[in-house]
Amino acid sequence: MKVLILYGKSPSANSLELAETAERLGHDVVAGSIIDVSSYVSSSQSRFWLKDDEVTDADVCFVRSFGPGTCEQLTRRISMIEHMEVSGIRVINPCYSFRRARDKYATQYTLARAGLPIAETYTTESMERAYRWSRELGVSVYKPILGSMGKGSLKFDDPDIAYNAWKMLSRLGQPLIVQEYLRNPGRDIRVFVVGGEVVGSAYKYGAPGEWKTNVAQGARMVDEPVPRETLDLGVKATSALGLDYAGVDIIESERGPVILEVNGAPGWQALKAATGVDVAEKIVRFAAAQR
Question: Among 44, 134, 156, 168, whose CB has the most other CB atoms within 10 angstroms?
Fold first, then answer.
């Protein structure tokens, strides 16, 4: 199997491990930045190159990131990955599902439509309306529409402090996503799903004094038994978004488990260290079985 691995500007430890694992399992691997991919389309054929190497004959393309860039550059990259799909290359995760999982707004309404529990979410481009909503909530959370690893997420205990943030973000042209704040017992749960099955799970304990439980923000993963209903929720969330694999974050709230995030390009280094599960091998073997 010829495997193409596309990451953003530079490879992460997960992208490197995915490439190493695919090679170890006997596959032909080409990896590089999505920025360096070019394409050609005519009435008779479609072709793709990573830098100067043609990759039209790739069987599988793992997309780990659309990379940084302008709206126009990202539009071309998304269209290019969809072009690969219609040209017969198996893209993992599927392009539209991957884009939808990156978009916190789209993720919320997709999960809600599937009947899955989510945090109440209000979106607007009006700082005044965002202020009214934050006053109604009392304690609120702002999330960047394309954020990851908890970066840029803010919690406001005072609606007037939130208002100052809404004003600044509006001036920067950012949409405002306001969520209810869900209290947790100092932890949440990561469920890792591949091919419709849970391959690993762990609790994420936040750093002392921190409300975030992202590993990138200092949280630690601990291998402890996770309730079956929570594992099932992770599988349902992955399926609802149409993802082949995902890392699903679930909080133990006062009203039961609630889905916080569904990551279509999840990291697995901390989960692997906590549980010993070779996530990269699970993903590559799943891809090979789909041919």
Answer: 134
> Minimal CA–CA distance to 177: which of 93, 120, 102?
120
State whether residue 55 is helix, strand or coil: coil
Cα–Cα dist 30/36, whole Å: 12
Q: Which two tokens stand for residue 193?
A: 């799903």
Provide the 10 A C-beta neighbour count for residue 233: 22
At the topology level, CATH places domain 121-180 in: Dna Ligase; domain 1 (3.30.1490)
**Tens of pLDDT, residues 94-145:** 999 999 999 999 999 999 999 999 999 999 999 899 999 999 988 999 988 8
The one-letter amino acid at 4: L
Asked if residues 14 and 273 have their Cβ atoms less than 8 Å apart, the reply is: no
**CB burial string 119-131: b at 16+ within 10 A, e below:** bebbbbeebeebb
